[in-house]
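Long-time lurker, finally posting.

We've been working with ATP-dependent DNA helicase RecG (Butyrivibrio hungatei) and I want a structural starting point before designing mutants. I don't trust myself to interpret raw outputs, so I'm hoping someone here can both generate the structure tokens and explain anything notable. Sequence follows.
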Amino acid sequence: MGKRELEENIINLKGVGDKTAKLFEKCGIRTCGDLIGYYPRTYDLFNEIVNASDVINGEVNTVRLTIIGNVVKRRVRNLTIIAFDAADQTGKIKITYFNAPYLMNSLKSGTTHVFRGQVQRKGSFFTMNQPKMYKLDEYMGIVRSMQPRYPLVKGLTNTAVMKAVKGAFTSAGSFEEFLPKEILDKYELMGYSEALYNIHFPKSREYLENARRRLAYDEFLLFVLKLRLLKNTQEDLKNSFPMIEVSEVNRLLEQLPYKLTKAQQNAWEDIKNDISGEGVMNRLIQGDVGSGKTVIALLTLLTTAANGYQGALMAPTEVLAAQHYESFKEIIQKYNLKSIKPVLLTGALSAKDKKEAQRQISEGEVNCIIGTNALIQEKVNYKNLALVVTDEQHRFGVRQRESLAGKGENVHVLAMSATPIPRTLAIILYGDLHISVIDELPGGRLPIKNCVVGTDYRPTAYKFIKDQVEKGRQAYVICPMVEEGELDGVENVTDYTDKLRAALPSDIQVEMLHGRMKPSAKDEIMEAFARKDIDVLVSTTVIEVGINVPNATVMMIENAERFGLSQLHQLRGRVGRGKEQSYCIFLNTSESDEAKQRLDIMNKSNDGFKIAEEDLRQRGPGDLFGVRQSGDLNFRVGDIYHDSDLVKAAAMDADKILLEDPDLTKPQHGVIRDMLYTKSVNPVDLMAL
Ligand code: ADP
Ligand code: MG
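Top reply, 14 upvotes:
Generated this for you. Predicted structure of ATP-dependent DNA helicase RecG:
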């Protein structure tokens, strides 16, 4: 493999034209390397052929049937329908195709075919709509293999992605192995090339798991190496920005309408000790959703400002950054805080506003800079940055942290996360990072009431939302998709908004929010929701992290079975933030028992730690792909809980490698070094770095 092939524009691949290239661009894919790094979302298993009597209702089954009786072709308006019965010795299934008149030639009475598709029970018999048809030998060639399913955008088909990925592999050739043989042998890891190929086109479930394990190991190894190298340069750094306690903070604490919880107080004490101590602060605040981490960030930023320095707060989304900015401004005004001067800097600002913000920052007119990763762009020059706070930092983007920290000299770092990482793992992953746990929710909150329901409950749910809105409350409805056509059977925000407007009285304001909207439009919607100008917000998971609108009391999640449990927990955490009773409605559209069991965990517990534990217990290795955990440390394939043995192994190996070769200058570590220091050399973009 060469760097050149991977940087080759996909437009040069066979079958990728201008139009397809544009669609790929929407998915962030420009080069062959991007394509190879575009892992499937999940996989379809070409399951064994079963008897007609053994099919499972609601699932994809494969059967081998002979067409019996007549094949009927009908036209209904502009639809051509082909329908027939087909059977084996054990039973009969009714099969229907739409708009596929070309099939008439092969569908002759008495002929036998393999059919693969979703089976539905209709009264006393089973039906299959639009099953895929195979010749027996053709199917035997692929049985037990798995077909990738990629994240798509409208107009881009799964087949098109598959073809392009195959093309990219052909053009890239094989990939150089970079792990030493001892390591490969010790953990029985699959070779690098084979793993990359099998993550896209696994020969079987076992191959997929082995490929995933190998790539997970790589992620952990590189992650730990990067951290260790970073730490080496930071080891024993002296505190260049010593701070003293400030009276304004104490006054604010006295005037706030609530008292800090004991756990918040402890976290705040830890921080104060850090920033006034000998060394530089490197602290993680871990606290479940709603435990009150924001105010801790504010106190730290206020202290920094009052000590004459600048501090920055980095949020993962523009929506959250804007919310922090608004709420800080409100508090600053309300409590007449004189020393802190906030500014918002995100990609959503106009060029002019951005320039102005940058000027204010570099000239030191502002001292509390709130934003997204626009904060780490080169154009921002801080005057005297002393503190960086990262909110909802599940990813612990080392790359980002390093880059932002690089803006100032040895700045204090405070990371805040709702993700419960077991302490032992946190120590392996973060070494000397200090951790404060906020294990207590503010008092006076009523536990959220949960229910898991089916689609027939929708009218009741709408009525419930209407009642809550009439009582002055607000509601969120979450759909997995933005617009139609991305996935069958999955609700999308665009159509759902219309549907809900029709279902609710016209004086109830329903609006939508999703990631493809312009940043300024997103901000407007969020602000309007915070102002209560919007009653019901239909949204994708863009509101998942951090959003705080305490007046919202209903969270309804469509296709709840499609989300990971940690993600559901994050979503649910958007309600239950005020004094009123809050409710979470999980709408389960799947018939599978497994989905029911998973959602049942949500039903029973409101505790993030418990949910993470249970989730891990219930998930098998094969599920790791289907249910990506958005809230977890965001490795691409690795899962710190499931793969905790690999995390430990990789941490040990990283230390061993660095002991022998502290700067990774030996030739055998050349590829690893490249992977760590040059972004595009490797197809696998190490998101966690
Ligand atoms: P998270 O930890 O999820 O970031 P937030 O910081 O957004 O939580 O806090 C959630 C809500 O709880 C906010 O409305 C905040 O004002 C409120 N809050 C924070 N600390 C306390 C406290 N000690 N007592 C009562 N309410 C609090
Ligand atoms: Mg928060």
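Before you design anything, note these points.
The first strand starts at residue 42 and ends at 45.
The longest helix spans residues 205-234.
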